[in-house]
Design goal:
The complex is a heterotetramer of chains A (660), B (473), C (209) and D (303).
Chain A: H1 2-12, H2 21-48, E1 53-60, E2 63-69, H3 71-94, H4 96-101, H5 104-126, H6 130-148, H7 157-185, H8 192-201, H9 205-219, H10 228-234, H11 237-259, H12 267-289, H13 294-322, H14 325-360, H15 371-374, H16 376-389, H17 396-411, H18 417-449, H19 466-484, H20 490-497, H21 511-541, E3 544-547, H22 559-562, H23 566-576, H24 578-581, E4 583-586, E5 603-606, H25 609-628, H26 637-656
Antiparallel strand pairs in A: 1-2, 4-5
Chain B: H1 2-20, H2 23-46, E1 51-52, E2 56-57, H3 60-86, H4 91-113, H5 117-135, H6 141-174, H7 182-188, H8 194-212, H9 218-227, H10 230-255, H11 261-283, H12 289-308, H13 311-343, H14 354-357, H15 359-372, H16 379-393, H17 397-423, H18 443-457, H19 461-470
Antiparallel strand pairs in B: 1-2
Helix pairs in contact in B: 1-2, 1-4, 2-3, 2-4, 3-4, 3-10, 3-13, 3-19, 4-5, 5-6, 5-10, 6-8, 6-9, 7-10, 8-9, 8-10, 9-10, 9-12, 10-12, 10-13, 11-12, 11-17, 12-13, 13-15, 13-16, 13-18, 15-17, 15-18, 16-18
Chain D: H1 4-28, H2 37-47, E1 50-53, H3 58-74, H4 92-113, H5 117-148, H6 153-159, H7 165-185, H8 204-207, H9 213-238, H10 245-269, H11 278-299
Classes of the chains: A mainly alpha (660), B mainly alpha (473), C mainly alpha (209), D mainly alpha (303).
């Protein structure tokens, strides 16, 4: 029954192109709700049972394609469903202005792709057979591509989208090669399950590397991340929200799925994941700090969080490899929980950024400011997201990081020297990431929402409607739930972890800590509110006066100009990390003799060194070379015949000399 | 007798068209002829494997290609009518157009079913002649140049191929086979001197490369696409290329079981890879939509050539691919014809913002882009996937990766131009409101693309059986 | 005797490379027609009458009279006196033609095909190659037509080489080929002359990239 | 009983600044204010009215409360030698550190809320320096965990059993490290000088320029407790937990006082770093922490 419904939905999506404009959104919502109910029911069922669910979905070449949902898939399905739902709810408000501009076909196409992105991601989690998986994977890329280029009228959107498509295709090619290679080497089934045969008989690292690159491009590990900081800003905010929230997690899903089949020499793999994740984490957040574009900054933070997830998975793998259960369990638990957490607060942040953009029509951080007075609700949600993404208690980001930390600290005692040093490195990495995240988000929150307005059209800005705040509310509830009652999610988390580690019951040991954490968080809450009351009482008796900010005896200060900017905030860190950030400053420095200097202009640009040296320059070189070599269509008939002659000659020679 | 009757009918109809000079008559007669052709395909499917009028056999590959031809001749007829309504070119030219269209279709049908190399060759020569007339339809300088080049180079190519065939017959004479009947040749091929077979195959490959549109003589086919009316371009890069493919395939089936098969495979791989590479690099300079599609045909024919060198799974993929490519490419050409109505130009730089101007057409273009670049859910994805599977099975890792790289380049170029057409800012001083395109004109394209998806994922049994029997040689 | 004729044929090929006057080409083609007829005649004494008629038709009627006559019309129609300068000096082109002849014969020797008199095979290969070469070095559409005909003649020689019992179909095919070559290409050539006011190939290079 | 640590910390926190002030005064030869002068000031501030900048928002009002709350809660995480703290669980020191971070976050955005360039500068430095100092603390805790195979304050300190002379080294470096971290975290010399009068060179003081009355009082109180919390850490670190209770109480207070005196001495005899020298100086702390880690590795025969 449910499966029939599901198949039906897949066909019904065509209906978008037949409906008039005003019904499109409702149609999309209905479809999505059906999808969500069906798949979530499956997911919950398989979460509770030990056996994965197995349903025939359809046939290719008259061979059945199975929907197989084990706990890992179930977890991802639930995450996808929630975030995609909030995304669509947010779209209802966010897309309003576009209804006037866009033709009904365009809107229909947008929703069509949105639904298909949702379906494709679900399929990615549900298919094990390689061919159908690859198809789902590519459909996911294509639909998300069309979502990204929704605002194609803006310049660069198209180019960005194309870059995105190409890089996704390269990733796809790597995965394809990976599957085909393993299939050729170990003539097992052409599916994920077939990989296990290969991994038993061969050294896994090479194949794993292929898959890691393929999936890593989607996930955005540095240095495979180069599409990410461009695609997210280009996309409309609800899309960036879901892309950053769940779509890049599909890469993580792929890696996890592959890892479930690897049981031999895991140490190099673990080290590899760990090192690249720490790199992504630290560099991602460092690059985020120096960005001027709000959504680009958030995009770099996705890279950072992927890094954190990777650290969790990496130490988990190390734990399995070195047979330190505590490390394995807590590593995987933290990593997997962080997948959920990141999907929550990142979508929240992107939606909030979308509110800002929809009101101010700019994403340049240094042109914003003082928005908290105009849009307090948005500011509140953004602050919530910021605190969560910085991994501060009592919010969900902290819980996952805490799990990773406790795993690492606990296992310090067991490992040998090398292990200890690796763990130490990861600890330092994680700590630095946390600190940098705080640095970054204090900056961005303050500059965007606090202080005084910098841009001119501040008067037009007002708080967005409730339909754009409701989805944020949903997400925030989830964030606070995980943050304040973490011990409730330990059990389901343990179920997911048990896919990788046998004795996931170790996870239960931490529930006492989590209980304590929630108590202390509660204590903070109580203290704060208590103090608030006390202050009210005290201040009722004493007098309160208001005035301008104390300018340190400099009264000529114009707050809009003299307040601290994002660029200057990022400056000192940018200098520390000069090698990766490449900040270029354009200005004329004052000389001795201009005592009364003229008006000066100062601007900074930063470029991503990896993108520059690993993608841009090589690609440009290759294309230039190929273009130069394209001289064969001369338009001259003689040449055309000459080709034939030369070809015959060459083949003749090759045959004579036994080359072919 | 059936085919002879068919030829007779076609000749009568075309001459009638040529003589009567009436629009309505043209339509009626041509549709009548197309109906006959479809009937022939049906007949051939029913009488599968039978030999007809001595020199023709209804074998599987012929049936498949003839069915493709039937389907495409319906759509092409429809779009030719639209085309001629929009580009008035005088009743005389129209009559020549329809007459030569009829003859082209019939000669292609003949080429598909011929079981005798010489007969097949004659039919192929005939297609060259008639398609040249069609290319010249617009009577412009460019059209003339294209027609001249196509006619000249492919006649020389065909001549070279014919020398190959003569050579084959010469050696077959040595084995006491007097005719060029393919079955008999296939039987004695094992005993022939490999060097002669190699020479034959090389000459035939080079000769028919002009028709199939692969390296080395691919160049003129590309030019032909540029100048021809778009329904004709649709024909050239689909059914006509299939003719060229068949020419090579027939000979391949003869040498398939001889000692030179490895040499042949190597040759095919070289040709195929060169074709793909050629299309990739030339695409980087492309400025004209029809040339872009022409080069993509070159790419796909290259894939087919590679596939042909990969043993049974490869053959399967090749035939699957040629069918799907025919449908997709035809659909794209019909749509680009529609694009022309808006921008009055095939040059990429003159177009833009098509998705807003004509949303339905935009959808077609998007679907076509996904299909032609072999992204799922296109059926071409399946066939290319099978090709790669076969490549890996034969341990051609480097080759496979190289081809994947070239595909990436091609996708990049296609994306760049297609999305320029769809989304870039509209060209100045044009008002598109006046033009109203009937939505039903796009149905043919949706049908074709949909067919590709359907056949790719859930092929009906008779289709797979046909392919299986086609590759069982 | 036959060998002598073949050598003569080879000489005509060389002379093609030498001459620059268009009407020489026409004459040379006529001569080749005659040579082909005699070769065929010597070669196929014991052939049935139908085949003989065919050969006669092809060589004498078509190749010796029809084609030169037709070519002359085309030539006058486009008032061609002498072709534009070759893209490479005559001296070298002669050398290359000789080289091609040698190649042909060496090839013929290398693989002695039973039932193919290797000299026919060699000369036909040589003719094919030199025909292609002729096309490649000439910038004039008319000379391209001539080159095409040279290749045709080579093909005819090969068909002789195939042996006495030449299937009727083959000769039919050759007829069609020649028909195409002359009529259609000729017609198009005239068109080219009319439209472009010149038969120089450089006019015909709009389609590129 | 479990409140012992908390109570003692509160007490010592109240006397802390007095001691520092006295020491500094004595060294420069002044008489100096009374021990409880700072406390009086705070109490007076509580009663005073307050001035709010018109630029500020509810963030500005909220931050001091959260800042105080975090530190006040953090202080219940500390054990009293052989007695657990109120919150004692595996990984509590992670929460402890992150509570500080939360408070810091709020103070930074509060400073930026005023839209004053000076406060922004201070906030910026605060963010950077605290970010860099964080690893040192974690590495130190890591090395303790490595020795004791426990990851909560209580068990860490209880199970610290130093025998060899190498362990003495570890203790010494650890103590030094804790003191320095405390100096940075509380923004004292050499990173920052609370007594400076130039806003451009301040860090913490400049952040709270716009606070007044109740809020300012809260912040300063919180600072006092923060200091004594570090003192408590050091105490737990250096004193063996095997002594009887009353001795421990005395020892605890003694350590706090000694700590305060040390701070006073340092502040009197040591110059403030150049602002742009601070990062490398702070990073050096992490380096030293790594040294401790390695020493521990040697200690437990991993090397």
């Amino acid at each position: 029954m449910d499966i029939l419904l599901f198949r039906l939905i897949v066909l019904v999506t065509i209906g978008f192109f037949l409906l008039p404009k005003k019904y499109l959104y409702g149609f999309a919502l209905v479809l999505q709700l059906i999808i969500i109910t069906v798949t979530s029911l499956w997911a919950i069922k398989s979460m509770s049972s030990n056996e994965p669910i197995k349903i025939i979905f359809s046939y290719i070449f008259h061979l059945p394609i199975y929907i197989i949902i084990d706990r890992l898939s179930a977890f991802f399905i639930l995450v996808i469903n929630f975030t995609m739902l909030t995304g669509l709810l947010y779209a209802s408000g966010y897309l309003k202005p576009y209804y006037a501009k866009k033709s009904s076909t365009e809107i229909a196409f947008h929703f069509f792709n949105y639904i298909w992105l949702h379906l494709a991601m679900l399929f990615v989690c549900m298919f094990r057979d390689a061919l159908s998986f690859l198809i789902a994977w590519e459909i996911m890329s294509i639909s998300s591509f069309f979502l990204v280029i929704f605002e194609s009228e803006k310049e660069n959107t198209m180019r960005t989208g194309l870059k995105y498509l190409i890089q996704m295709h390269i990733g796809f090619a790597f995965i394809l090669v990976g599957f085909l290679f393993s299939f050729q080497q170990s003539s097992a089934a052409f599916s994920f399950d077939g990989l296990s045969t290969y991994f038993f008989t061969h050294r896994p690292f090479f194949l794993f590397l292929l898959f890691f690159i393929g999936f890593g491009i989607k996930a955005g590990f540095i240095p495979l991340h180069t599409w990410l900081p461009h695609a997210h800003p280009a996309a409309p905010s609800h899309v960036s929200g879901v892309m950053s929230g769940v779509m890049i997690k599909m890469g993580i899903y792929g890696i996890l799925r592959v890892l479930t089949y690897i049981h031999t020499d895991l140490i190099p793999i673990g080290l590899f994941i760990l090192s690249i994740s720490i790199l992504s984490g630290i560099l991602g957040v460092t690059l985020a700090i120096i960005q001027h574009d709000l959504k680009k900054l958030l995009a770099y933070h996705s890279i950072e969080n992927i890094g954190i997830i990777g650290i969790g998975i990496g130490i988990g793998i190390m734990g399995i490899a070195l047979n330190i259960p505590v490390l394995a369990v807590f590593g995987f638990a933290g990593g997997i929980l962080h997948i959920l957490n990141h999907s929550l607060f990142k979508s929240l942040l992107f939606f909030a950024a979308g509110n800002v953009y929809s009101q101010t029509h700019t994403r340049v951080i240094d042109q914003l400011g003082g928005l908290i007075k105009k849009m307090p609700k948005t500011a509140f949600f953004f602050l919530l997201g910021a605190l969560a993404i910085c991994g501060l208690p009592p919010f969900n980001g902290f819980i996952s990081e805490f799990l990773i930390y406790s795993g690492m600290f606990k296992s310090l005692h067991y490992g040998d020297l090398q292990t200890n040093l690796v763990i130490l490195g990861s600890i330092v990495g994680l700590v630095l990431i946390g600190g940098l995240a705080i640095f970054c988000f204090t900056k961005v929150f303050s500059v965007v929402f606090l202080g005084t307005a910098r841009n001119v059209n501040a008067s037009l800005i007002k708080e967005v409607g409730n339909n754009m705040l409701l989805p944020k509310l949903l997400v925030s509830v989830m964030i606070l739930f995980i943050g304040f009652l973490p011990f409730l999610i330990i059990k389901p988390l343990g179920n997911v972890v048990s896919i990788f580690v046998k004795n996931a019951s170790l996870l239960q040991t931490t529930s006492v800590s989590l209980t304590n954490i929630s108590i202390s968080s509660l204590a903070i809450l109580i203290i704060v509110s208590g103090l608030w009351l006390i202050r009210k009482l005290v201040q009722n008796r004493s007098k309160i006066s208001y005035g301008p900010t104390w300018g340190c005896a400099y009264t000529g200060a114009n707050p809009a100009v003299h307040q601290y900017t994002a660029a200057s905030f990022a400056n000192n860190l940018g200098e520390l990390a000069g090698s990766v950030t490449h900040i270029k400053k354009n200005f004329i420095s004052l000389t001795e003799e201009d005592i009364f200097p003229k008006g000066q202009k100062f601007e900074t640009h930063s470029s991503d060194t990896f993108e520059l040296n690993l993608v841009k320059i090589p690609a440009r070189k290759i294309l230039a070379f190929m273009k130069k070599s394209a001289v064969f269509q001369t338009g001259n008939l003689q040449h055309y015949l000459l080709y034939a002659l030369i070809f015959i000659l060459i083949i003749f020679l090759l045959s004579v000399f036994q080359f072919i | 007798m059936v085919l002879l009757v068919f030829f007779a009918i076609s000749i009568i109809i075309s001459s009638l068209i040529f003589l009567l000079r009436k629009k309505t008559v043209n339509l009626i007669l041509t549709s009548l002829f197309v109906a006959t052709q479809i009937g022939l395909s049906a007949y051939s499917f029913i009488h599968k494997g039978e030999t007809d009028s001595a020199y023709f056999t209804f074998d599987a590959i012929g049936i498949i290609l003839s069915m493709v031809l039937s389907l495409l001749s319906i759509t092409t007829l429809y779009h030719s009518i639209l085309y001629l309504n929009r580009h008035t070119s005088g009743i005389k030219n129209e009559c020549i157009y329809f007459a030569s269209l009829v003859m082209l279709i019939s000669s292609m049908t003949g080429a598909y079913f011929a079981n005798h190399l010489a007969v097949m060759w004659v039919c192929i020569e005939a297609t060259t002649l008639f398609v040249a007339l069609l290319i010249f339809h617009e009577r412009s300088k460019v059209a003339l140049e294209a027609a001249w080049k196509y006619l000249y180079v492919s006649s020389i190519g065909v001549t070279i191929a014919f020398m190959g065939l003569l050579f084959l017959s010469a050696i077959s004479n040595a084995h006491g086979i007097k005719s060029l009947d393919m079955k008999q040749l296939a039987i004695i091929a094992k005993d022939m001197n490999p060097i002669y077979l190699k020479i034959t195959f090389l000459l035939v490959l080079v000769g028919f490369s002009a028709k199939m549109g692969i390296v080395p003589l691919h160049t003129v086919t590309v030019d032909a696409h540029t100048a021809a009316p778009f329904p004709v371009s649709a024909f050239i890069s689909t059914t006509l290329m299939n003719v060229g493919f068949l020419g090579i395939f027939r000979l391949f089936t003869i040498v398939a079981h001889t000692g030179i098969i490895n040499w042949t495979n190597a040759l095919l791989i070289i040709v195929g890879t060169l074709s793909i590479a050629m299309s990739a690099i030339q695409l980087l300079r492309i400025k004209h939509f029809k040339r872009m599609f022409a080069f993509s045909s070159l790419e796909h024919m290259g894939i087919i050539a590679v596939a042909l060198s990969l043993g049974k799974p490869g053959y399967y993929a090749a035939i699957l691919h040629i069918v799907f490519h025919s449908f997709v490419k035809a659909g794209l050409f019909y749509q680009i014809g529609q694009v022309y109505n808006f921008f009055k130009s095939y040059w990429i730089s003159d177009t833009g913002n098509y998705f807003k101007i004509n949303p339905v057409g935009g959808l077609v273009i998007i679907l076509g882009f996904i299909s032609i670049t072999a992204m799922p859910p296109s059926g071409l994805f399946i066939s290319e996937f099978l090709v790669f599977k076969a490549l890996f099975a034969l341990k051609h890792y480097a080759l496979a990766c190289f081809i994947l790289f070239l595909f990436t380049i091609i996708i990049y170029v296609f994306g760049k131009h297609i999305f320029f057409l769809l989304y870039s800012n509209p060209p100045e001083n044009k008002n598109f409101e006046t033009i109203k395109i009937n939505r039903f004109e796009t149905i043919s394209q949706f049908v074709l693309f949909g067919l590709v998806i359907y056949l790719g994922f859930n092929p009906p049994v008779f289709f797979t059986d046909l392919i299986k029997s086609a590759i069982s040689f | 005797m036959v060998s002598l004729l073949i050598v003569l044929y080879g000489l005509t090929l060389i002379y093609f490379a030498l001459s620059e006057r268009v009407n020489n080409y026409v004459v040379l083609l006529g001569i080749q027609g005659v040579l082909l007829f005699t070769i065929a005649f010597y070669n196929l004494r014991d052939i049935n009458i139908v085949g003989l008629i065919f050969i006669l038709l092809e060589t004498i009627v078509v190749k010796t009279f029809l084609i030169p006559y037709f070519l002359n019309r085309v030539r006058r129609h486009n008032n061609l006196k002498r072709v534009q300068e070759h893209s490479i000096p005559v001296f070298y082109s002669v050398l290359i033609i000789v080289l091609l002849l040698v190649t042909g014969f060496v090839l013929g020797n290398q693989l002695e095909v039973k039932s193919i008199q290797s000299k026919f095979f060699s000369i036909s290969i040589a003719s094919l190659l030199s025909g292609l070469f002729f096309v490649i070095i000439h910038k004039n559409v008319f000379s391209h037509l001539v080159g095409y005909l040279i290749i045709e003649n080579g093909m005819f020689l090969l068909s002789l080489a195939v042996g006495n019992e030449m299937p009727v179909l083959v000769s039919l095919a050759i007829m069609i080929d020649i028909f195409i070559g002359i009529l259609v290409i000729g017609i198009f050539l005239n068109k080219v002359g009319d439209v472009f006011q010149s038969t120089n190939i450089d006019e015909l290079s709009q389609l590129k990239n | 009983m479990i409140l012992t640590a908390a109570i003692l910390i509160l007490i010592s926190g109240l006397i802390f600044p007095g001691i520092i002030g006295k020491v500094k005064a004595k060294i420069v030869g002044r008489k100096g204010p009374g021990f409880f002068q700072p406390v009086y000031d705070i109490v007076r501030l509580f009663r005073k009215g307050s001035v709010y900048s018109t630029t500020t928002s509810y963030i500005f009002r909220l931050s001091p409360l959260i800042y105080f709350a975090t530190i006040f809660t953090a202080l219940f995480f500390l054990p009293f030698f052989n007695q657990k703290g109120v919150f004692s669980f595996e990984g509590d020191f992670v929460v402890f550190a992150y509570l500080f971070a939360l408070g810091r976050f709020m103070m930074i955005i509060a400073a930026l809320d005023t839209g004053s360039g000076f406060e922004g500068m201070g906030a910026n430095r605060e963010a950077l320096f605290s970010m860099i100092v964080e690893p040192a603390f974690f590495i130190l805790m890591g090395s303790l965990a490595l020795i004791t195979d426990h990851i909560s304050f209580y068990e860490l300190f209880v199970n610290l059993h130093f025998g060899s002379n190498l362990s003495v080294l570890v203790t010494l470096i650890g103590t030094y490290l804790l003191i320095q971290i405390a100096m940075v975290e509380n923004s004292r010399v050499p990173v920052d000088d609370p007594k400076t009068h130039l806003e451009l060179t301040m860090i913490h003081e400049v952040m709270i320029l716009d606070y007044s009355g109740f809020d300012l009082a809260l912040i300063q109180l919180a600072n006092l407790f923060k200091f004594s919390i570090y003192g408590a850490l050091i105490a737990n670190f250096v004193l063996p937990a095997t002594m009887p209770f009353y001795l421990l109480v005395l020892g605890f207070l003694a350590v706090e006082i000694v700590f305060a005196v040390i701070v006073g001495l340092l502040e009197s005899f040591r110059a403030r770093n150049k602002m742009n020298k601070n990062p490398q100086w702070i990073i050096s702390l992490s380096a030293i922490a790594v040294l401790v880690f390695i020493a521990v590795l040697i200690l437990i025969e991993r090397m």
